[in-house]
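Sequence, please.
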């Protein structure tokens, strides 16, 4: 949900599809909206406020974040993220941060 020209990186339907949820009630919608908003703020903080919402890596990161937040919203669920997934996420964030910095400095990729 980055506000870059009113573009959003995720929709409710993106997250519902990612999570495999086909029945939706008001509570699920509120939880999904909260995870989308939180994912947006995490991406702003880690990549930058003008992160590229059209980049497929950004969308995948947002889905991973939203999915993890949704799946682990209870206190009794232990968060299990594989080392490979964590490395992939860290690498994508670093790539995007560096690319955003380059583009702000006028460098081409």
């Amino acid at each position: 949900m980055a506000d870059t020209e009113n573009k959003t990186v995720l929709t409710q339907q993106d997250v519902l599809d990612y999570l495999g949820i086909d029945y939706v009630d008001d509570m699920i919608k509120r939880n999904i909206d909260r995870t989308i908003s939180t994912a947006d703020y995490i991406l702003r903080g880690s990549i930058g406020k003008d992160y590229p919402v059209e980049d497929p890596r950004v969308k995948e990161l947002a889905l991973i974040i939203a999915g993890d937040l949704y799946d682990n919203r209870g206190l009794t669920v232990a968060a299990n993220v594989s080392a490979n997934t964590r490395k992939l996420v860290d690498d994508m964030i670093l790539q995007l941060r560096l690319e955003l910095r380059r583009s702000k400095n006028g460098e081409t990729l």
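The chain has one domain: 4-104.
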